[in-house]
C-alpha cells in the first residue's frame, strides 16, 4: 500500500509540474505578443523632498540649522518650480531583461515630452547581465535618448555587469557607489549534452539541418571539434561587437585592457575608465533638486492571471531546478553577456 501511495504521489507531482510548465509557456507566448496595455505613472519628487524637509524642520526643539532650513524652503517656494526637467527611470535587470518592455515605453514618453539639450534623464540601473538579444535591445532603447539629444546619466548603486554594463556604456556619464560591481565585459555560452547517456540506453537521436551553420553544439547529438570551434567563433563574434559598442560610446576607454570578462569594484573601475565618478544615485538626484524639476517615470504593464502565474512558475522552476535549465537549453545554444 505504501508503494502504491508513493507511486500515486510521484504521478501527481509529475502532472502538476507538467501543467505549470504548460501554463508558463502559454503566458510567455502571450507576453511576447501585442500585450494587454499599461499605464504611465509620473511622480514629481521636488514636492516630496520639500515635504520631508518641512516635516524635519517642524520637529521638536529649536536651533539655528532649523531656521536656515525654513529660510531656504521659503526662498525655494518664492522662486517657483525650476524650468529644467530631469526624468528619473529605473531598470531592474534579470537574465532575460524583462524590464526592457517597460523601458521602451518610458523612453518613448520622455522623448515625446523632453526638450533636447535642456532636459535630462537619470537611469538607476541594476543588472548582472543576461541574454545577448535582450540586453542589446535595452541598450538600443537608451541610445534613442542619446540620438534625441537628451543628456543621460546612468547611476549604479550595486551592480552593472556584462549586459548591464552594455547598457550603462550608452550614458553620457556613469556614476557608481564605491562598492558597486562594474565590468564583466565578456560572453559565455553553455549547454548540457546527453549523447553518451542516450547511446548507453540504446536510444538513437537524429537531427537534420539545411545549411552548414544552422546548428553548432547540440544537446542530444554527438558534438565534434568542428561544432565546438564554430560555437566559440560565434561567442567571439558577439564579444567583438560588445567591444565595438564600448568603443563607440566610450572612446576614452582602453577596451582591450578591460574586455577580459573581469569585474571591479567602483573605485578600481574609476581608475580604468569604466565609470566617470563615485556617487550614489541618491546624492546625484538630490543635488539636482535645486536647479531642476525632478520627475519619476514608471510604466506599469497590465498582466492577466495567466501571465502572473506564468512568471511566478518560471521563477519557482528556475531556482536551481535542473529541469528549468534543460528547458532553457533546448531553445538552442546562445551566448549571454
Write out key terms for the chains shown.
about 325 residues, single chain, alpha/beta, 9-stranded mixed beta sheet, 2-enoyl-CoA Hydratase, Chain A, domain 1, 13 helices, 2 domains
The chain-level structural class is: alpha/beta
Tell me the major beta sheet: 9 strands, mixed
- CATH architecture descriptor of the largest domain: Alpha-Beta Complex
The CATH homologous superfamily name of the largest domain equals 2-enoyl-CoA Hydratase, Chain A, domain 1
Q: How many domains make up the coordinates? A: 2
Provide an overview of this structure.
This protein is of the alpha/beta class and 337 residues long. The chain has two domains: 1-34 and 306-337, no CATH class; 38-305, 2-enoyl-CoA Hydratase, Chain A, domain 1. It has helices spanning 2-31, 46-57, 64-79, 100-113, 132-147, 163-168, 195-200, 225-249, 255-258, 266-272, 281-288, 305-318, 322-329; strands at 38-44, 84-92, 120-127, 151-161, 173-176, 181-183, 263-265, 277-278, 292-301. Helix 2 (46-57) runs antiparallel to helix 3 (64-79) and helix 4 packs parallel to helix 5. It starts with a helix and ends in an 8-residue tail after the last helix. Mean pLDDT is 80; it is low at 31-36 and 317-334.
List the helices and strands and how they pair.
Elements: H1 2-31, E1 38-44, H2 46-57, H3 64-79, E2 84-92, H4 100-113, E3 120-127, H5 132-147, E4 151-161, H6 163-168, E5 173-176, E6 181-183, H7 195-200, H8 225-249, H9 255-258, E7 263-265, H10 266-272, E8 277-278, H11 281-288, E9 292-301, H12 305-318, H13 322-329
Parallel strand pairs: 2-3, 2-9, 3-4, 4-5, 4-6, 5-8
Antiparallel strand pairs: 1-9, 6-7
Helix pairs in contact: 1-12, 2-3, 4-5
Amino acid at each position: 500500500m505504501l508503494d502504491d501511495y508513493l507511486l500515486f504521489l510521484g504521478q501527481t507531482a509529475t502532472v502538476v509540474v507538467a501543467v505549470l510548465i504548460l501554463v508558463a509557456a502559454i503566458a510567455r507566448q502571450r507576453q511576447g505578443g501585442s500585450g494587454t496595455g499599461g499605464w504611465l505613472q509620473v511622480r514629481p519628487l521636488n514636492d516630496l523632498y520639500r515635504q520631508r524637509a518641512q516635516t524635519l524642520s517642524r520637529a521638536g526643539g529649536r536651533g539655528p540649522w532649523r531656521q536656515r532650513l525654513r529660510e531656504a524652503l521659503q526662498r525655494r517656494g518664492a522662486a517657483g518650480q525650476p524650468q529644467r526637467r530631469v526624468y528619473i527611470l529605473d531598470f531592474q535587470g534579470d537574465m532575460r531583461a524583462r524590464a526592457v518592455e517597460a523601458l521602451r515605453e518610458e523612453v518613448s514618453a520622455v522623448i515625446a515630452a523632453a526638450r533636447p539639450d535642456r532636459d535630462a534623464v537619470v537611469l538607476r540601473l541594476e543588472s548582472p547581465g543576461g541574454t545577448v538579444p535582450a540586453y542589446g535591445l535595452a541598450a538600443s532603447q537608451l541610445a534613442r535618448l542619446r540620438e534625441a539629444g537628451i543628456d543621460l546619466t546612468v547611476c549604479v548603486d550595486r551592480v552593472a555587469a556584462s549586459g548591464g554594463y552594455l547598457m550603462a556604456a550608452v550614458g553620457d556619464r556613469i556614476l557608481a557607489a564605491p562598492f558597486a560591481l562594474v565590468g564583466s565585459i565578456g560572453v559565455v555560452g553553455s549547454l548540457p549534452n546527453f549523447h553518451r547517456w542516450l547511446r548507453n540506453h540504446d536510444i538513437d537521436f537524429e537531427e537534420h539541418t539545411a545549411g552548414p551553420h544552422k546548428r553548432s553544439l547540440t544537446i542530444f547529438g554527438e558534438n565534434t571539434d568542428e561544432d565546438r570551434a564554430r560555437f566559440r567563433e560565434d561567442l567571439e563574434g558577439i564579444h567583438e561587437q560588445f567591444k565595438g559598442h564600448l568603443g563607440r560610446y566610450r572612446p576614452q576607454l582602453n577596451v582591450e585592457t578591460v574586455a577580459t570578462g573581469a569585474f571591479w569594484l567602483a573605485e578600481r573601475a574609476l581608475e580604468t575608465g569604466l565609470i566617470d565618478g563615485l556617487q550614489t544615485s541618491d546624492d546625484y538626484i538630490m543635488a539636482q533638486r535645486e536647479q531642476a524639476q525632478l520627475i519619476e517615470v514608471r510604466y506599469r504593464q497590465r498582466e492577466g492571471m495567466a501571465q502572473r502565474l506564468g512568471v511566478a512558475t518560471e521563477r519557482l522552476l528556475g531556482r536551481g531546478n535542473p529541469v528549468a535549465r534543460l528547458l532553457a537549453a533546448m531553445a538552442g545554444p546562445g551566448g549571454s553577456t
